[in-house]
Amino acid sequence: MELLDATGAGAGANSLPADLTVVDGTLRVAPPVEVRADLLLARGERGPWLMLEVQLEIDEEKVRRWLLATAVLFDARGTMGDLVVITPHAHVARWARAMAKPTGALGTRVALAPCVVWLSRAVAETLLDETRPELAFFAAWAMQERHGRAAKRIVREAVRLAGTLPEALQAPQIRAILSVASEKMFAWLKETAMIPATMPESPWVRRYREELEARGKAEWKAEGKAEGKAEGKAEGLLAVFAARQIAVSDATRTRVLGCTDAAQLDTWIHRAVTATSVEDVFRSG
Fold first, then answer.
1. Would you give per-residue pLDDT tens digits along the chain (285 residues)?
2. Which H helix or E strand runs over 58?
3. Whole-angstrom Cα distance, residue 256 to residue 262?
4. Most CB within 10 Å of its CB: which of 66, 239, 250, 269?
5. Whole-angstrom Cα distance, residue 137 to residue 178?
6. 231 to 225, 247, 256, 258: CA distances (angstroms)
7. Alpha carbon distance 100, 112 (integer Å)
8. 3-state secondary structure 9-50
9. Cα–Cα distance between 202 and 182 in angstroms, integer?
10. Can you say whether residue 23 is alpha, beta or left, with left for phi > 0 and alpha for psi between -120 and 50 degrees?
11. Cα–Cα distance list, 256 to 158, 192, 225, 230, 263 (Å)
12. For residues 267 and 18, what is the distance between their CA atoms, to the nearest angstrom?
């Protein structure tokens, strides 16, 4: 609700009941069809509701799904609620505002006009609010595909605002911001965090650096696991060559051991089982 208020999208939000709570977002009709909302808020068994969808790209299937979901909720709860679509992309926002207006052959028309929240750079700036630091996550989320100077400043400020939250919420907020940062943005954050002059040490900054290091270690471990898996497959391919008495040159051995694509190695192993030469294994197509 705070996000709607902060972005100006929830002009009528004051009329919504204050006691809405999170409920199961899976909506079922017969014959069995499920529409799983990203977040569904409702009050009790009947009455007001609000369905939230986070949309990163155009999805034509949503024309049917959102119409179905709102119709089911309208019927089941006895009142019309709201569908809120949040996106960081202008083209997705334009699509969401106009997408759900299917028309039948004879002119029958069904329309759905969701409340669309486009988290543009200007809107992201407004979410960097000292009085509501929890909203800074959305500002960082909106920058996930941007890497320019403005995007870096916004993400950096979002991280700083995380340090103004209650201590128990700081690490989860920092972790959430890092989880939506692109690889390029994460690399920049890690680089600048290691320069004390850019961010003097304090309890929350130390926590921020620890989260950066933890994510870095996790990524390194995942990369190492993938490399180890590929290395094992390469050794396996060479073993198949040896078992089938297929001559392997030094160049071929280097090619096999240097391959880090596990799927490619699987293909070569499959071919090596019946191949009569190295050329049969490495053929294209």
1. 778 788 877 676 677 777 888 888 877 766 666 778 888 999 988 999 999 999 989 998 888 889 999 999 999 999 999 999 999 999 999 999 988 788 888 788 888 999 999 999 999 999 999 999 989 999 999 998 888 899 999 998 998 898 888 888 888 888 888 888 888 888 888 777 654 555 555 566 666 767 676 765 555 444 545 555 677 778 778 877 776 778 888 888 888 888 888 788 878 887 777 777 888 888 765
2. none
3. 11
4. 66
5. 10
6. 10, 20, 9, 8
7. 5
8. CCCCHHHCCCCCEEECCEEEECCCEEEECCEEEECCCCCCEE
9. 26
10. beta
11. 46, 39, 18, 10, 13
12. 58
What is d(CA 147, CA 189) in angstroms, rounded to the nearest whole number?
A: 11
Alpha carbon 228 to its chain centroid, in Å, reads 27
Residue 112's CB: how many other CB atoms inside 10 A? Answer: 17
DSSP label of 245? T
Two structure tokens written together for 210: 């620890």
